[in-house]
Design goal:
The chain is of the alpha/beta class. It is built from eight helices and ten strands. The strands form two sheets. It has a five-stranded mixed sheet with strand order 3-2-1-4-5. Helix 2 links the parallel strand 4 and strand 5. Helix 6 packs across helix 7. The radius of gyration is 19 Å and the shape is globular. The model has no long low-confidence stretch (mean pLDDT 96).
Length: 299
């Protein structure tokens, strides 16, 4: 049986990953381009998929897992359009403007929903009924998947803009979010860490007191996700989470914050099996984008 070909995009804050894959997830062609403005990125995106379709076969659909905020409601007239993103030039841009020429279905979701879907399908979330995937990198965001379906309300979730408790005596940094100041993203994302200390946690050598500070903010999110969604597992990815000792500190502080109130077999002592790194590494997003496209092709 000949498999259909899926066009997939993982649109991140610093780079776009472009891929053409069979519907079983096998990638036939892949490229990376720097995230600049839509006027600079979109022509390169279109050219990649034109060339890939000519080299392989016409594409059956597209799956896009993108940074945001972005309209991910398929019933909306502005589906696939960036909304209040602080990224210069992207507000009002729409993926359909560049992919519409191919005349096939286009599914657009968030980068973290895509990563959650990818991990649920082929990574550390296999076997979970409900899975929460959080990235802590250029920004902070969480995707939640239930039985293989990314969840949302009238829009996608915005966990990175939850405001955790901040002790100004311990952490005088006022935060870097242009909307909220000291929300999670403004305190613990990569740019916030560099604005506070001049380097990333890894470049600083991951000193314990700084690791514990950042872990406390991330653990506030982890405990909130448990209380709000009761997921079978929490996955934490992104560049910041690669700092030595940070994942372990998040486990300790999350367990402390939950204080034994939630008891379930999933919450193993020490949370070593509950709070984990991505099984797919940096490939979770594009894996999820391919799956979004496959689902779109079936609808």
């Amino acid at each position: 049986m000949v498999q259909r070909l899926i066009g997939a995009i993982e649109a991140g804050g610093t780079k776009f990953v472009l891929a053409v894959a069979r519907e079983d997830g096998t990638i036939l062609q892949e490229a990376r381009i720097a995230t600049r403005t839509p006027d600079q990125c979109f022509p390169e995106v279109a050219q990649f998929f034109r060339a890939a379709a000519a080299a392989h076969a016409p594409l059956a659909s597209f799956g896009v897992a993108s940074f945001g905020p972005i309209d991910i409601n398929p019933a909306s007239s502005t589906y696939g359009t960036f909304t209040t993103t602080p990224k210069p030039g992207w507000a009002g841009a729409r993926f359909h403007d560049v992919l519409g020429e191919f005349g096939v279905p286009i599914a657009v979701d968030t980068d973290v929903n895509g990563a959650a879907l990818g991990e649920w399908l082929k990574g550390a979330g296999q076997g979970c009924t409900t899975l929460a995937y959080t990235t802590v990198g250029t920004g902070i965001g969480t995707g939640v998947v239930h039985k293989g379906k990314p969840l949302m309300g009238f829009s996608h979730y915005e966990s990175g803009h939850i405001q955790p408790p901040r002790d100004a005596a311990v952490d005088p940094f006022a935060g870097s979010c242009p909307f909220h100041g000291d929300c999670l993203e403004g305190l613990a994302a990569g740019p916030a860490i560099e604005a506070r200390w001049g380097q990333s946690l890894s470049e600083l050598g991951s000193p314990p007191e700084k690791v514990e500070l950042i872990a406390g903010y991330i653990a506030h999110l982890a405990a909130s996700l448990v209380l709000l969604h009761m997921p079978d597992r929490l996955i934490f990815g992104g560049g910041v989470m690669k700092a030595p000792g940070l994942l372990q500190a998040v486990r300790r502080q999350t367990e402390r914050k939950l204080a034994g109130y939630v008891r379930a077999p999933q919450l193993d002592p020490g949370l070593e099996q509950y709070i984990v790194a991505p099984g797919l590494g940096d490939h979770a997003g594009i894996t999820g984008a391919i799956e979004l496209g496959r689902i779109a092709a079936d609808q």
